[in-house]
Amino acid sequence: MIVTALVVAKAPVPGLAKTRLAATIGDAAAADLAAASLLDTLDAVAATEVDRRVVALTGTLADAARAEELTQALASFTVISQRGDGLGERLAHAHNDAATTGAVLQIGMDTPQVTSRMLGDAAAALTESDVLGAAEDGGWWALGLRDPSMAQALLGVPMSAPSTGVDTHAALAAAGASLTMLAVLQDVDHESDLAAVSQLCDPASRFRIAVENIRK
To answer: What is the pLDDT of residues 138-170, one digit of tens each?
Structure first.
């Protein structure tokens, strides 16, 4: 099966990125961590055996933290613009816009601990079923659909809520998806998430180094 890896990302602009995290560590530090997390995610996707790699991006990259490094990393990806009003609509459009044919494996930019092996296993699982990776906060970090048009089921799901993962599973199942669950991961939304997530990252990862620099 042809698989497209899709990263849904927001340009990490200070004052606009990671606002809940910024409330305690400041706009610049939060944006830098968001940029580091996105760069580590892009590295993992680049090392994953998939057929196409797409980033659905919103925001002004030129204003972002680590703008030059992000621009260089994105050069090896197909970059498309997010479209739609709410997050559910933007995700549904991103799945449709990313896929020329085959399946789509979508991840966000909040789980820098993700590895190419984890993504490769998820992509391989798409030969048998759709996949969903739950997050510890009740959301989800990965969604793989063999038929990307099934992402339309996300339009009715309340996003960024404690029940988002459960609601997403229910909506997709009702639409006919056959879901295999991936490992549960902790994503980064608050300062309290930093230590636990960074310890799961490679010691040389940008995110782990950025967290260590904040804690000095």
So the answer is: 999 999 999 999 999 999 999 989 999 999 999
Dihedral of the CA atoms 172, 176, 177, 178 (nearest 10)?
Answer: 130
Whether the pLDDT of residue 1 is over 90: the answer is no
46-50-53 Cα angle (round to 5): 55
Please report which residue ranges of 47-115 form alpha helices under DSSP H. 67-74, 87-98
State residue 160's pLDDT score: 87
The DSSP secondary structure of 121-172, one letter per residue, reads HHHHHTTTSEEEEEBTTSSEEEEEESSGGGGGGGGGSPPSSTTHHHHHHHHH
DSSP state of 86: S
Helix pair 67-74, 27-46: axis angle to 10 deg: 20
pLDDT value at position 100? 83
| Contact between 6 and 94 (Cβ < 8 Å) | yes
Q: What H or E segment, with its residue span, contains residue 56?
A: strand 52-58
